[in-house]
Each structure stands twice: as structure tokens, then as C-alpha cells.
Amino acid sequence: MLFALAAILGLVALYIWFIYNDLVSSRMKVIEAWSQIDVQLKRRADLIPNLVETVKGYAKHEKKLLENVTKARTALLSASGPKEKAVADNQLSGVLKSLFAVAENYPTLKANENFLHLQKELSDTEDKVTFSRQHHNTMVMEYNTKLQMFPNSLIAERFNFRDKEFYEAEEADKKKVEVKFEE
Q1: Which of the chain's termini has less CB crowding within 10 Å, N or C?
Q2: pTM here?
Q3: CATH superfamily of domain region 2-174
């Protein structure tokens, strides 16, 4: 009888141990997925000074736009946490769209090899950022789901596991972008 009770308690302990380790593993996947977003955002931010310098030579009267790009880059690099990074990333994406729209007015800039290379690098990086966001949100969804499932929820609550935030687009990014040039 005592042996059977010890065996049952041992199985329960092993089950709790398994769930705990699974939750830790899932939490680490969320952290790793977030770090991939961070890496891609940093990569994009590192490309921007070269892009700004290239555009400066051609679009000298676009000073305000170039200043906005630099400010948005600085805001992204100094942001911390998913929510703050998402806001800064959205602002940077907006000013980069404006920068590329303005570049359309400068045929020699559009043909510049360095500008084309930087534009391609930024485009590739945007694709990687998008993939990283999707991957992060998938990992967050899986982790948060595990936290809500029974009996995981009991163990998660006992060991202070908390839901993670999704990386969400701002409302402004969900709207259609309009580019208008003043005449």
C-alpha cells in the first residue's frame, strides 16, 4: 500500500516536472523568437545611416525627411520591450516609405548602384523582420495556449509563468498608405 502511494506520488511529481520543463522550453522559444526580431531590427537600423548619406547627395532639400529617418532610427535603437519596439519600428517603417517615395523624384538616385544595393538590403531585411514577427507571434500563441490548458494552468500559476505579448501592428500601419507629392 505504501509502495503504491509512493509510486503514485512519484508519477505525479514526474508529470509536474514534465509540464514545468515544457513551459520553460516554450518560454525560451518566445524569448529566442523575440531576439530574432531584435536582430533584424538592428540590422535594418544599421543600414539606414548609409542610405541617408546616399540620399543626402541627391536630395539636399529633403533635409526634414532625412532628419525624421534619423530620429526614427534612434527611437528604434533606444526602445525596450516588444510594445515600445513595435511602436518605434512602425514609425521607422513609415518614414522609410516616405524616403523611398521621395527617391522616385530623383532618377539619378534611383539608378545609383549604392542606393539600389541598400534598397535591396532593406527590402530583404523587411522580409526577415516580417518572418521574425510571424514566428514570434506563433511562439507566443503556443506558449500562452499552454499556460491556459489544464493542468498546465495550475502549474503555471504556481510557478509564476505569465502570458507574453504579441508583436502587433499599430492601427496606422493597417491603413492603406497614400503618397502625395506637392506641386
Answers
A1: C
A2: 0.71
A3: LemA-like domain (1.20.1440.20)
